[in-house]
Design goal:
This protein is 37% helix and 17% strand.
Length: 315
């Protein structure tokens, strides 16, 4: 399916991954200009691309970027039990395979590659960076999930018991949790739109999914110093879903020489969608300025530099 609105071309496509699952993909392209760079979207837990990430795709395409998204297994329009992530490693590999295929097309292989991860999607972006540390040119990390708060972390004995239970009932919704939408989304109208959207998962976390999120968060927490790509973190100061202080810890611990951290007092977890228009404009202005500064610098580099940096997809 293709749509053209406000000089933006929107397209959808289904692909099949290596495990035989059908995954939904989409892209937003600026219609009347060559894209400045690629933005590769990694959505958060329980969300999807065609609805939740639409605002990002539209804004960034209007700013001159080609934006690509994919619903991961068990989310949105992709195959799998809704809300179920049996393997975070498989999820990361699906994103790697798809985004690499996007980057290596003739139209894209000389373009800069920026990962954009929201909440759990930021964990996906950081793990893709770990797999290919030289391949990506930067990352936009929105309220990243990279550490479980100590007060929320189960005792090791409890984790051991849950792991054994997950071997028997991995998909059961038995993990206690508060209403995520109430905690994450400031806008009551958007909150209800998500609640009424069948593509967004609203139930309690499934057991294996919760354990995978815990495992990945603890892994990333131990390896913050290995983050070396350029990045900007944006985080709401009133976020109670992911801790802003952990984003500051990532900013301070990362070995990256090009990094930025923006904290927005009073903003909640979904600061690229659920805030008032003036707040959204501020956040996107900061992100676009950061990206534009790097894409304009890249344009001054020679074709030889571009080829050396981008023609080795295995790095």
């Amino acid at each position: 399916m293709a749509q053209n609105v406000d000089d933006i071309r929107y397209e959808e496509k289904f692909i099949t991954n290596k495990r035989g699952l059908v995954l939904f993909t989409c892209r937003w392209l600026p219609e009347n200009q060559e894209p400045k760079a690629l933005i590769l979207l990694c959505h958060g837990y329980s969300m999807e691309c065609s609805f939740w990430m639409k605002g990002i795709g539209t804004r960034m395409a209007k700013a001159g970027y080609a934006v690509y998204g994919i619903d991961h297994e068990g989310h949105g329009k992709s195959s799998g039990l809704l809300g179920y992530t049996p393997s975070f490693d498989n999820l990361v590999n699906d994103f790697l395979d798809y985004f690499t295929s996007v980057c290596e097309t003739d139209e894209n292989k000389k373009k800069l590659r920026f990962l954009w991860g929201e909440s759990m999607g930021a964990a996906v972006a950081l793990l893709m960076h770990r797999e290919k540390p030289q391949y990506w040119d930067g990352a936009v990390l929105v309220a990243p999930m990279c550490k479980i708060a100590d007060s929320m972390k189960p005792h090791p004995i409890v984790i051991y018991a849950l792991k054994n239970l997950a071997k028997v009932i991995p998909t059961w919704k038995i993990v206690p949790s508060e209403d995520f939408l109430v905690l994450a989304i400031k806008s009551p109208q958007l909150r209800e739109e998500v609640r009424n959207n069948p593509l967004c998962y609203k139930g309690r976390p499934r057991l294996k999914t919760a354990l995978e999120l815990l495992r990945v968060s603890m892994d990333i927490e131990k390896n913050l110093d290995k983050v070396s790509l350029p990045f900007i973190i944006v985080h709401g100061g009133a976020d109670i879903v992911t801790d802003p202080s952990v984003s500051k810890l990532l900013y301070e611990s990362a070995s990256s020489t090009d990094k930025a951290f923006k904290l927005y007092p009073g903003m909640w977890h979904t600061l690229t969608a659920g805030e008032p228009p003036e707040s959204l404009d501020l956040v996107f202005s900061d992100i676009i300025t950061w990206l534009d500064e790097r894409t304009s610098t890249w344009k001054s580099r020679s074709e030889t530099d571009q080829k050396a940096r981008h023609d080795n997809p295995s790095s």
